[in-house]
Amino acid sequence: MLAYTLLILLAGGLQVLAARVQVTWDVGYLNISRDGSTTWRAIGANGQLPIPPIYVTQGDILELTAINHLDKPVSLHAHGLFQRNSAYYDGAGFTTECGIPPGSQFTYIIETRDQSGTYWVHSHYGTEGIDGLRTALVILDQDTSLLDEYDEDVLLALEDWGQEPNDNLLERLKTLSLVGMPPNHPSVLINGINANILQPIRFTPGRRYRLRVVSMSFTYWFKVRLPGHTMQVIEADGIYCRPSAADGLDLGPGQRYSAIITAQESLEFNYALNVT
Questions:
Q1: Each residue of 74-119: pLDDT tens digit?
Q2: Cα–Cα distance, 79 to 254 (Å, whole number)
Q3: Which residues, in sequence order, are CB contacts of 134 under 8 Å at separation 6+?
Q4: Residue in 158, 166, 229 with CA at minimum distance from that of residue 195
Q5: Could you tell me which of 150, 164, 167 has the C-alpha nearest to residue 235?
Q6: CA 274 – CA 229 distance, rounded (Å)
Q7: Alpha-carbon span 122 to 215, nearest angstrom
Q8: What is the value of pTM for the model shown?
């Protein structure tokens, strides 16, 4: 559930429009197959997975309410946000908060006036995040001059997805004996869908695309390549940088990049987006 309330802020004599963006997550279990292979009890919001990404504009106030329908506490962490003077909203379970008890709810107040770029929100309690309770958070720039550098904005949210609830894997890891443990090879999800069955991303020749790539992984490193195209990296973990040419991106858990690519002029080939 998403709602907007407009605020008018007066700062330095300038009139700035900001919004109070209200998002509500009914956090609960659901049996689902996300990789087209196995079905198990995952954790979603409002009865769905993937959880839709959250978009706000720099200066907005995000009010994220979590209603806990699980049988254990829930906490939510906005990954990459500074939380200056608001560490009590940082969402690190049993570090900055005790977690939201089952049957209760809590609203996180997240201010964005000091940051923009690509982030994500995930549970910071146990294995809830890797079991599905995670989504991308995009803070759009208040300064729109960067929009002259590209024509379209494309979000690629990457996830690792296992074959069973990760509480099971965690219990086996606690034994400190990996002998005889079957290998755990997670599937790769792009925007919540098995990368091998994802519908094509359609680019128009000659147009410039900002690829926002966010690794919402807890265990897996991703390599992202688009053969035949050079990526101009302009953002790393919410910090803008001079454009830097790269033939691909390597992302560890939690990392984010924005890169601008120009689609090839030729329609002779389709290009495979490689995420490994």
A1: 999 999 999 888 888 888 888 888 899 999 999 999 999 889 999 9
A2: 7
A3: 51, 120, 121, 122, 123, 159, 216
A4: 158
A5: 150
A6: 12
A7: 12
A8: 0.89
